[in-house]
Amino acid sequence: MKNPFRAILAIQPEDRIALILFAAVAVLIAMVSHPDTLVTAPMYQAGDVSAANIKSPRDLLVKDPAATEQNRKRAVASVLTVYDFDETLADKTAGRIARAFGLVRESMEKQEQKNAEYEARFAKYEDEKKAYEEKRKQYEARLKENKQKLGEEEKAEGPPPPPGAPPPPP
């Protein structure tokens, strides 16, 4: 097995300096880009006092509900009311009101038309009812007359024959 250092020793002295300089720059870049690999943070337990200020490697969220609510109320109080002036609002509102009254008017006209149709049908019904009552009275009068005529004819003929009796001669 060959010695790896012999290959390095075989390099010319000028090239050796360039190679060493290149290796040093590479190590320096590695240390700068990843400082946590060489420097380790001390391990503290809860309640320990640190020797110096320690910076967290990531953001921490410490919740304070009372301060959050106070800041929220302050932010709400600091917001001003914004009014958006609309020059066409009056015309739009008047148009909507006119349209609403028009719909009500149209509905009332339809209802009046329905009422007129109902009254016409009711009047026709009343007329038909009167005609029916008149015909009924006429029918009852004719029925009464027919009963009277029948009663007079029976009196003239005599009592009806008893059941099972032979019919009278013609």
Explain how this protein is built.
This protein is an all-alpha fold. The protein is built from 4 helices and no strands. Helix content is 65%, strand content 0%. 0% of the residues are buried. The protein is rod-shaped and about 175 Å long.
Overall SS class: mainly alpha
Mean pLDDT over all positions: 85
Number of helices: 4
Number of DSSP strand runs: 0
What's the N-to-C terminus distance?
165 Å
Helix residue percentage: 55-70%
Hey, roughly how much beta strand do the residues contain? under 5%
Query: What order do the SSEs take from the amino end to the carboxyl end, as H and E?
Result: HHHH
Largest sheet: none
Rg, alpha carbons? 60 Å
Shape, principal axes of CA atoms: rod-shaped
- Give unreliable regions as ranges: none
Topology:
Layout: H1 4-9, H2 13-33, H3 65-78, H4 89-157
Short description:
The chain has about 170 residues and is mainly α. It has four helices and no strands. It has helices at about 5-10, 15-35, 65-80, 90-155.
Q: Which tags fit this structure?
A:
170 residues, mainly alpha, 4 helices, 65% helix, 0% strand
